[in-house]
Amino acid sequence: MDPWAYLPFSTGFRYCIGKYLALAESRIFLSEFLRRYDFKLKPGYEWKLRTTLIYEPVNDLELVLTKRVHE
Question: Which pTM value belongs to this model?
Answer without folding.
Answer: 0.58
